[in-house]
What we know:
Blueprint: E1 5-9, E2 14-18, E3 22-26, E4 30-37, E5 42-50, E6 55-59, E7 61-64, H1 71-83, E8 86-96, E9 107-115, E10 128-133, H2 135-138, H3 146-157
Parallel strand pairs: 4-9
Antiparallel strand pairs: 1-2, 2-3, 4-5, 4-7, 5-6, 5-10, 8-9
Amino acid sequence: MNSPKTLFKGKFLQVELIRGKYEIVRRPPAVGALIYWCSQQKIVLVKHKRPGVEECIWEIVAGIVEQNEELVSAVEREVMEEVGLTVKSIVFLGSFYPTPGYSDEVIYLFFVEADNSELKKNDTSEELEPFALKIEDVWKLEHKDMKTLLSLYLSKDKGLLKTMNSGSF
C-alpha cells in the first residue's frame, strides 16, 4: 500500500497523490449560514468576488472551521465577521461534500436568526459585500453557488422560511 504523497501544501488546502494515481484536495471543514435578519425581516446574502471563477457570486455567509473550533462557534464568528450580525438562534440543516470526486471538503449548513442595527463587514481580508433582501427577491437572483442553493431549499423544506412560495427558479 502506497502512503499518500504531498504534492502541494498551501494556507487552506493540501494536494495529495494517493494510490499513485488520484490527486486529492484536502481541506478543513467549512460552515455556511443562511441568515434571517429578524428586525428587518430579510435574508442576508453576500456578493462575493471569487477569483477561481473570476465573478462576483451571491452566497450565504461561509468560512473554514478553525482548528478545535466547534461548528456553532464557527457560524457565530463568520456571521459577525462577514455581515456584523449577532446570532440569536441556529438550526442545523445538513452537510454535504461539494466535490467528492477529488476533495474531502465537507460543508455544514445552518439556518440562523440574527440581529443588530446594521449590516457591516468586519473582515477586510475578503472581497465581499453584505445585502439584506426580501425572500421573493432572493429567488430572482442568479444563483451559481451550491451551498447557497442547498441551504435555501433545505430551509424551505424544513419550514424555516414561511414566504418562500413567492418566487421560483
